[in-house]
Amino acid sequence: MVYANNYNRSARLLAIATVFWLSAHGIASAEKVKLSPDSWGIEGGKACIDCHEKASPGLTRQWQDSAHAEAGVNCLDCHQANTVEDDAITHEGSVIATIVSPKDCGRCHTLETSETQNSVHSQAVALLDSKIPGLAQQLSGKALISAGCTQCHGSTVEVRGDGTLSADSWPNTGIGRINPDGSRGSCSACHSRHQFSKAQARTPEACSWCHSGADSPDDEIFNRSKHGILFNTHRAEMNLDSDSWVTGSEYIAAPTCVTCHMGESPGVKGSHDVGMREAWSLNGPVSEEQYLVIFDDGERRELPVSQQVPRRGSELSRLDGKAGKVKAVASPKQRRQAMSKVCIECHSKTFTAGFMHQFDNAIKYYNTSFGGPAQAIMQALYDQEVLSKTPFDEPLEFTYWRLWHDHGTRFRHAAAMAAPAQSSWEGIHQVAQAFYGSFLPQLRELVGEERAKSLIDNFTPSPGQTSAAIDSTPTPLVGYGATRP
Amino acid sequence: MINLPVFITRHVLIALLLGGLAGILFVLSLIEFDHLTGSEEFCTGCHSMELVAAPYRKSKHYNPASGVRASCGDCHVSDGVLAATWDHILGGKDLFAQLFGADYDDPVINALHLPEAAFAARRWFKKEDSATCRRCHTLEAINGSRANTLLIHQQEAQDKSCIDCHYNLVHRLVPEERTFKRDRWNRMIEREFDLPTGKADELLQQ
Q: Which of A97, A180, A249, A337 has the most other CB atoms within 10 Å of its CB?
């Protein structure tokens, strides 16, 4: 209870309750649908199939192979709409909507829907709007927004006055999609339509649809980690189609993304709210440990530990900026405990603690040596108006971006997932080169030797390369800094 | 010499002959009239219809691969002199509305009233069992370019009329009546013509 010590008794109780909630009881598992089979299989929906078997055989056959078809859930069960809904259209005599939102899925899958509705995943649009507005506009071009950004984060689906969906916002299967009915997210981001397979969502590939590339290079990292190697070797033994999928009992061959970040393990209930077990934020210029704040309506947000821990009942802004009332807060330590519980299904406690020690040290090293100094120097340059406020219009901004985003993110994610070649050569090695080889020289060029020195002295713990301790003579033959061949 | 009844006098014969000729001329002129008033040139003589015709000129019915162009009357006027004439008499109310009704020549007014016109047209097609479609399209002969098009038209299209499935083919897209939302339509038109919110409702009231 690192944090509870600093607060009063009620805060301590709250923290205990939260650990309890995070690790064992609070998060219910992905329960089976409770509705009776009489509740689905709308008669009118059966007629859809005759025509769609011919008009769109691909999607119809996918559905025929699905658990939905097996249970008798037909087209209309999901697509049926009310005439007053904005995106309701009349199709062959039935009133339907093209988009099946989480709210629609929630007609049966109530628990999964409530878990995703409140998750940080489902708020990916707000994250996109607040974090990198400059990226698409200044760098990649506006066309990227529809074809790139919002395909993962989700679009705000626009229904025109004639009931059609604007092509800029649809098709879209982003995880935080804002649907015409106001719900957030898209179940088919992970469970592709029209098969909606559990197995698919359990594979790393389902996640790497978005979690690959510079912003979130988890696909490459996982595949170069021991976990990934095991998965690729033993894929056939993963029991991916199993109804229940508990680590250690239904499968033992390898963990996937789901296993650690949302899956069920003994003592750790699974949840469709992905990301509750992450103690660190690994996606900014500087990493911070983070609270998970749960609002009274169940919605969540991350909060860096540098900010005051919010008390129960106090007000805090949500990710979209609106005020919310805090119901519970999970500390980074509690989140780490939940994650570690998954690890010990296959590793010893000592092994797990040792790994976490290596991981934490790597993040702290990055923070103090590269991310922190670079961020502080950039802030000073913006404050002193050496750099314009416009993002991505000066060379130093590009270098800074490469440093913390492209290379820094890869380093930190690789450290988190134990992919050594990714964390070293593709990670910190690139960070260091960007810092010493580009960032600092560009800084000197921009503000002059003297001013640069004062900035570096101010913000860098060890200005320049501290090579005094290394007993080596630069040898051009084998490369600089190498010991004798 | 044929013995005609006594009341068939020479004058009666002349009258019958002239009357007959006039009748033939009348029917012929009706045919001509129906033909002429079903043409694109005639229909788009009013500016309001020009607005409706603009999307038509981009449609498959105007520019089909086959080169068989459907003109306004081909779809919107029934077959046969009597039915065609009757349709034109009914259509006279459109002329009346054009002259004495709202300013349909104004693109905004036109777009605001379009849905009701579309609904009426669809009702008419439904009532006529899509007869004008079937002037050119024969259900049994619809092969399409995909294998299943033929099958769908043989199996799923039974007991259905063309218009049941095929609408929004030619003119500006209007939702089906049950899912049409006047409020959202008005907002769309306002955005399209850069009008303040509520202006469309005001214009419709007039």
A: A97
End-to-end CA distance of chain B: 72
Give the separation between CA B81 and CA B48, rounded to whole angstroms.
Answer: 26
CATH of residue B57's domain is: 1.10.3820
Instruction: Sort A454 into a burial class: Cβ within 10 Å, 0-12 / 13-18 / 19+.
Output: exposed
Cα B23 to chain centroid distance, Å, stands at: 27
How far apart CA B162 and CA B179 sit, in angstroms, is: 20
A164 to chain B: nearest residue by CA? B175
Domain count, chain B: 1
Q: What one-letter code names the amino acid at A294?
A: I
Burial class (CB in 10 A: 0-12, 13-18, 19+), B90: exposed
**CA neighbours closer than 13 Å in the CB half-sphere of residue A398:** 8
Query: Phi, psi (5° rounding) for residue A52?
Result: -70, -20
Yes or no, beta carbons of A161 and B186 under 8 Å apart:
yes
Asked whether residue B13 is assigned to any structural domain, the reply reads: no
CA distance B167 to A353: 66
Question: What ipTM score was computed for the predicted complex, to two decimals?
Answer: 0.84
In A16-122, beta strands by DSSP E: 88-91, 94-97
Whole-number Å distance between alpha carbons of A28 and A270: 7
The SS3 call for residue A308 is coil
Is the Cβ–Cβ distance between A78 and A158 less than 8 Å? no
Domain ranges of chain A: 4-27+287-334, 195-275, 349-459
Q: How many CB atoms lie within 10 A of CB B165?
A: 16
Flag whether residue B175 sits within 8 Å of chain A, measured between CB atoms.
yes
Q: State how far the alpha carbon of B153 is from the alpha carbons of A51, B143, B165, B170, in Å.
A: 10, 8, 11, 21
**Residue span of the structural domain in which B127 resides:** 38-205
B141 in a structural domain: yes
Residue B152 is nearest to which of A51, A89, A163, comparing CB atoms?
Answer: A51
Instruction: Name the residue among B148, B155, B173 with its Cβ closest to that of A162.
Output: B173
Task: Give CA separation, B99 vs B34, B48, B106, in Å.
Answer: 21, 11, 13
Asked whether residue B18 is domain-assigned, the answer is: no
Sign, CA dihedral B141-B147-B152-B155, equals positive
State chain B's maximal CA–CA distance in angstroms. 85
Asked whether residue B20 is assigned to any structural domain, the reply reads no
HEC profile of A401-451 = HHHHHHHHHHHHHHHHHCCHHHHHHHHHHHHHHHHHHHHHHHHHHHHCHHH
Please give, rounded to a whole number of angstroms, the shortest distance from the CA of A39 to a CA of chain B.
Answer: 25
Tens digits of pLDDT across chain A (485 residues): 333 344 455 555 555 555 445 544 433 344 444 455 667 888 888 889 999 999 999 999 999 999 999 999 999 999 999 999 999 999 998 999 999 999 999 988 999 999 998 888 998 998 887 666 677 777 777 788 888 899 999 999 999 999 999 999 999 999 999 999 999 999 999 999 999 999 999 999 999 999 999 999 999 999 999 999 999 999 999 999 999 999 999 999 999 999 999 999 999 999 999 989 999 999 999 999 999 999 999 888 999 999 999 999 999 998 888 999 999 999 999 999 999 999 999 999 999 999 999 999 999 999 999 999 999 999 999 999 999 988 888 999 999 999 999 999 999 999 999 999 999 999 999 999 999 999 999 999 999 999 999 999 998 876 445 444 445 555 555 555 444 44
